[in-house]
Amino acid sequence: MIARRQQAGANPRRIDARLSLLDRQVLDADRVPVQVVGDLELSHVSLDHPIPPGTPAPVITALLSGPVLATRIFGGRPPTSRLHRIDWADVAEIDVALSLSVRGDTLDVTWVERWVSEHIIGRIPGGHSDPQ
Amino acid sequence: MVESPGVTVILSDLLHLPIRDDSGRTLGVAADARFEITDDDSGRPAHARLIGLVVSRRHAGSFAGYERTSVTAPWPIARYLRWRHRGSFLVLWEDIAEISPQAVRLRSGYGRHPAQL
Fold this sequence. Notes:
The complex is a heterodimer.
Chain A: H1 2-6, E1 13-16, H2 17-20, E2 25-27, E3 33-36, E4 39-45, E5 60-65, H3 69-74, E6 84-87, E7 91-94, E8 98-100, H4 111-119
Parallel strand pairs in A: 2-8
Antiparallel strand pairs in A: 2-3, 4-5, 5-6, 7-8
Chain B: E1 7-10, E2 18-20, E3 26-39, E4 45-56, H1 75-84, E5 89-92, E6 96-99, E7 104-106, E8 113-114
Parallel strand pairs in B: 2-7
Antiparallel strand pairs in B: 2-3, 3-4, 4-5, 5-8, 6-7
């Protein structure tokens, strides 16, 4: 609600990534928590080359989740293979939490939870039943 | 949307980088990145375009962004953090001449814009 309150009805609206995106909870289409935003993937940034005037600005292409706590404190970045992507096209709303337009069980970021559910929890008697 | 050539990076690659002017003088560090969100007809945030970088003259960390918002409570914390981040400013993407893993270099005649949202 922070970004929305500040700029109600504004389109386009402006937000700062660390204030309104990083560490925010991500909810899937069923309002089930999926992850928190660990980082953002930006498109088309020229590194180590002069940026010609008039070059279009980068855009966010994906939300990233992974082991980012240590690298935020001590610097560096986690290996790309350890980061899970959620396409920006799947983001439906930016509020106190970020809402997706897809279900969490279709995302790579939830594969550990799905594997544990299927191979461990599901083998425990009663493990297939939803909690009451 | 027209896209510029380059590589895919993550935001952490930009945050904490020193910001330098065209003569190499360090102006501060990238404390945050400002984006412009454009909604489509259904209200979905279709595009998030980088507007620029928030430059803090002293500290890369900016707890709660007090210096960029109108939040004033609790006032001792708000006053302390505003003082701590005094002099923060926004540099626009158009004023960025080069990004390297070591620093961000600005064009000559770059503008300092208010950091407030």
